[in-house]
Amino acid sequence: MEEFSAGSGLSGLADRAADGGGLTKEQLLLAGLTHSAPTAPLQLNRTANVTPGLRYRNLGKSGLRVSNIGLGTWPTFSPNVTEEQAEQIIVLAVESGINAFDLSEAHSGTRAEVELGRILTRRGWKRTTFIVTTKIYWSTRSEERGLSRKHIIESVKASLSRLQLSYIDVVIVHKADPMCPMEEVVRAMNYVINQGWVMYWGTARWSPVEIMEAYTNCRQFNCVTPIVEQAEYHLFCREKTELHMPELYNKIGVGLMAWSPISMGLSQSKDDSTIQLFSRASFRNKYSSFSWTEDETAAANKEGYGWMKERSQPAEESRKYSERIRELNSLAERLGCSLAQLTIAWTLKNESVQCLLLGASNVDQLYESIQALQLIPKLNVSMVQDIEKILENKPTRPPMVSTLALR
């Protein structure tokens, strides 16, 4: 198979285009897909003015347009990254065309909002050119437990103050609260939107049933409906995204903003990626409701991704996953890319993913991840089938059971 490359061939075509060589923009964007590849991961001339493969999509069935990759800032504002390094990452993202920045109090505390606010103020970018999503998070260590109207309004006001912004584009409610009436939650979100503090709202780690309940309450009480669900999606976590999110989008207009610990882990450390990749025992609990007895805020108090290592899986299961990783690595080498890049491209190949959140703790990691966009056209039907043969985990709906057959 022809290997994948995006190196000197693209820079040469860029020079020809600048000299009036008659190349179209589409030819320039696809130029990196027609040359033989080096053994190193995908690289692109950093002087190029375009980011091949970057697209802007409507988030859900709203009019808000976001780049198909966004910057998840939890590793960017981690304790081992300086403010100068964080600003370099933000600047690279903006210059590459990324306009979505996601913040998570669960992993980086309030530092992310404070530092991102300083960077945005210092850079002086127009407010219309970037989209900020932040979360309302609660746990046993929160000052306010649950999703009461009081907690929601106070959280939004505090985020606005830290970000130094007049409004937040999307506020994400992180985890549903079984102890709070859904009517109170949707009315509180409608209130902060009517005040002009927030433009849209969405959810994270909600089950399809909880999302439908929120939508039904919004319609009943004439409130603004959620436009997006943030869900985990990668090669080894597929059921919710592939079976349920398309249905939610078609029925009630809820879009998908995906996040992936796989690409995060692989971009952090080549030697330690296997541990980070297969240590999430929570893969099986995607739809479980959370109570106040569960506490995940310990993640915010530990450096980097060490908290992932504490979630171990059975040895036999880890062995099978490791074998699949080796096969995926071989496939990535055939394409001339890294495994992390293959993972990102495979995720974005799913049309249901309107925005994939990528993390980076340095500029090189983010740059390498962005180049995975050029790999998407290479994932044709044959290549996708090869990946499916390796994974053997394509989700399927259970067969319909007729009540007549029970008589």
Automatic annotation (TrEMBL):
* Localization per record: Cytoplasm
The NADP-dependent oxidoreductase domain covers which part of the protein? 68-391
Checking InterPro entries in the record gives: K_chnl_volt-dep_bsu_KCNAB (IPR005983), K_chnl_volt-dep_bsu_KCNAB-rel (IPR005399), NAD(P)_OxRdtase_dom_sf (IPR036812), NADP_OxRdtase_dom (IPR023210)
Q: Which Gene Ontology BP terms does the record give?
A: regulation of potassium ion transmembrane transport
Q: Which GO terms describe its cellular component?
A: cytoplasm; voltage-gated potassium channel complex
Q: Which UniProt keywords apply?
A: Cytoplasm, Ion transport, NADP, Oxidoreductase, Potassium, Potassium transport, Transport
Molecular function per GO = oxidoreductase activity; potassium channel regulator activity; transmembrane transporter binding; voltage-gated potassium channel activity
The entry assigns this protein to a family as follows: Belongs to the shaker potassium channel beta subunit family.
Q: What protein name does the entry list?
A: NADP-dependent oxidoreductase domain-containing protein
Q: Which organism is it from?
A: Dendroctonus ponderosae (Mountain pine beetle)
* Organism classification: Eukaryota, Metazoa, Ecdysozoa, Arthropoda, Hexapoda
